[in-house]
Amino acid sequence: MNATLTAVEGLRVGHWSDPAARTGVTVILCPDEGCVASASFAGPSPGTREAALLAPEKRVERVHALVFTGGSAFGLAAADGVVRFLHERGVGHPTRMGPVPIVPAAVIYDLLVGEPVWPGPREGYAAAAAASADPVTAGAVGAGAGATAGKYRAPVPTGLGSALARWRDLS
């Protein structure tokens, strides 16, 4: 049984990883009409792109993909590749000039654990192209390739995970 994020109908997840550089990108693609999403960003220095759109009072109500990436602020460029991937498929928020893909992104700081390389648009595009409804791979893959805890003293490798919880009808 699939107990990962892709058990939610319509969601697809793809990864791009560089094991030598210990960095990567994970992309969650929503169905073409988008998904309702919300988030809270904690920590002293959250690195994000389009995070403000996830607030409930904003006009844009749906996102078309979410990007999680390594590379600190440099890695946010990976979202450009996902935007291009969706634009080529006509997916996005309807505007007079055509659909505009809404792709919020968040980064982790993995610059101290591998080569000085970070994901960019090509890598984001590759992760989006690799997205599938298969169970999500966990561990040192995608955005989790260089994930660590205890960054400044003695980094301990962590990784990427995904889980699914189902609630029964309480009515």
Explain what you see.
- With 171 residues, the protein is an alpha+beta fold.
- The chain has one domain: 4-Layer Sandwich (L-amino peptidase D-ALA esterase/amidase).
- The protein is 14% helix and 16% strand.
- The chain is built from 3 helices and 7 strands.
- The chain has helices at residues 72-75, 78-88, 121-129; strands at 12-18, 23-29, 48-49, 65-69, 105-107, 148-149, 156-157.
- The strands form 2 sheets. The protein has a 5-stranded mixed β-sheet with strand order 1-2-4-5-3. It has a two-stranded antiparallel ribbon with strand order 6-7.
- Strand 1 (12-18) and strand 2 (23-29) form a beta hairpin.
- The model has no long low-confidence stretch (mean pLDDT 92).
Any key phrases for this structure?
171 residues; alpha+beta; L-amino peptidase D-ALA esterase/amidase; five-stranded mixed β-sheet; two-stranded antiparallel ribbon; 14% helix; 16% strand; globular
Sheet with the most strands? Answer: 5 strands, mixed
Secondary structural class: alpha+beta
Rg is 16 Å
SSE string, helices as H and strands as E: EEEEHHEHEE
CATH superfamily membership: L-amino peptidase D-ALA esterase/amidase
Total number of strands: 7
How far apart are the first and last residues' alpha carbons, in Å? Answer: 26 Å
Percent in strands? 15-25%
Mean of pLDDT: 92
Query: What is the total domain count?
Result: 1
Overall outline: globular
Query: Can you tell me the CATH topology?
Result: L-amino peptidase D-ALA esterase/amidase
* Range of helix content: 10-25%
**Which CATH architecture would you pick?**
4-Layer Sandwich
